[in-house]
Amino acid sequence: MTVTTIPRGSETEYAAEFTTRRTSDNAQIRDTVAEIIAEVRRNGFEAVERFSQQLDKVRPREISLSELKILADQCEPELVKTLRRAADNIREYQSKLIPESRYWNVENGRLGQIIRPLNRVGLYVPGGTAAYPSSVLMCAVPAKCAGVPEVVVATPPGQNLSPAVAAAALVAGVDRVFAMGGAQAIAALALGAGVVPRCDKIVGPGNSYVAEAKRQLFGEVDIDMIAGPSEIFVAADSTANPVWCAADLLSQAEHDVQAAALFATFDADLANAVARELERQVALLPRADIAHASLENYGAVLLCEDMDSVLELANAIAPEHLELAAAKPRKLAEKVRNAGAVFAGHFTPEPIGDYFAGPSHVLPTNGTAKSFSPLSVDSFLKRTSYIEYSGDGLNNVAADVTRFARAEGFEAHARSIEARNNK
Asked: Are 52 and 136 in contact (CB under 8 A)?
């Protein structure tokens, strides 16, 4: 790979160009998903069955708890232990984020906020040629920590559910599992379809059809986010190890030909060393074709003037994963404004967050970390405002409220206040 120099002051311009070339609008996908949603809305589970047989060549079905246990028993025992340890880490992290309902007295009464969990959440777990037990843990465990009574999993049917996914579902405390994939699964979870219950929120990653279905159904149901291909930005000072940095970049490049792997530093020797390491290491990977295409399409080794410029570039791009490969990462983290997750220091490679550390790996992508947050226990809670006025309190504010109401032309609003006004 070649090293690209980013002059000071052009960080935002580079970020805009990068984000634009990763944004696509596929009319064919949009129209196909709209048709699927409309059919599921009209015909329920019958439409889900039809699309599943047409697209997946397998009938959708619910997988019973007893079948889940049989499948989970086929999972490698050491992997099950790892799943349990990872789940424990996620629970410990998420439990520290749980807010509580709170109330306080004010001059004319009492105000507050009531916090309650969502009633039912749908979790989409990608399937097909790969199994993602990590997605089960990273979505279902925070939901259960929030107190969600029912978590429903949908995953593409294939011939058999992965034993690792089955084990993860049991470890996470999932309540129901449906062998059901694609946009039709998202529509079923959002709208309800026969045996598939309607969910209040749908979370989890998926292909472009799944993402588009979530986009179109948002509003009828809540969603976590519209996740795009994976991203990593490694911000490095002169203490960084080029072998490690290249390995971390490739850990995301192997995901998808559209995954992005960016490296930025102010050290020219380091930049050149990382470029050489990427070329050496990519050839050694089992998914070398995918990783190489990712680097060709959306990979870059960038040379900035100093660390401030590196971080300005990172903030402008707002990457999903931001590694601070530096001697004093905590100091640098104070300057990070936009990132899905920060991995601080030389011994915190991105995969530690994908699988084990505790924070969810469901993160905003393609610049949306400027306004979106990672999936967490908070994603499964809803807030209700609490307002309580005393009789004297209502009298004290009656004139202000009625004046406000009449200024907007709402006479009934004003009379609602005056009906209770004791003065």
From this structure: no
Q: Please tell me whether residue 12 adopts helix, strand or coil conformation.
A: helix
What's the confidence (pLDDT) of residue 141?
A: 98
As a whole number of angstroms, the distance between CA 291 and CA 277 comes to: 13
| Beta strand 260-265 pairing with 299-303 | parallel
| pLDDT < 50 regions, the chain | none
Residue 1 has a pLDDT of 86
Q: pLDDT digits over 99-153, tens only?
A: 999 999 999 999 999 999 999 999 999 876 567 999 999 999 999 999 999 999 9
Positive or negative, the CA dihedral 353, 359, 364, 370 is negative
CB contact set of 330 (below 8 Å; sequence gap of 6+): 344
What gap in Å lies between CA 118 and CA 199, rounded to an integer?
9
Burial class (CB in 10 A: 0-12, 13-18, 19+), 422: exposed
Instruction: Provide the angle, in degrees to the nearest 10, between the axes of the packed helices 268-282 and 288-298.
Output: 150
Task: Give domain limits for the chain.
Answer: 3-22+229-358, 27-223, 390-423
Cβ atoms of 293 and 324 closer than 8 Å: no
Question: What does the DSSP assignment read for 349-387?
Answer: -THHHHHTSSS-S----TTGGGT-----GGGGEEEEEEE
Q: Cβ neighbours of residue 390 under 8 Å, at least 6 residues apart?
A: 108, 109
What fold does the segment set 3-22+229-358 form as a domain? Rossmann fold (3.40.50)
- 92 Cβ partners below 8 Å, 6+ apart? 358
Assigned architecture for domain 27-223: 3-Layer(aba) Sandwich (3.40)
Catalytic residues: 320-321
User: What is the reported pLDDT for 128?
Assistant: 61
pTM over the 0.85 mark: yes
3-22+229-358 and 27-223: identical CATH topology: yes
In 3D, which of 260, 194, 251 has the Cα closest to residue 229?
260
Give residue for tokens 């089960």.
136
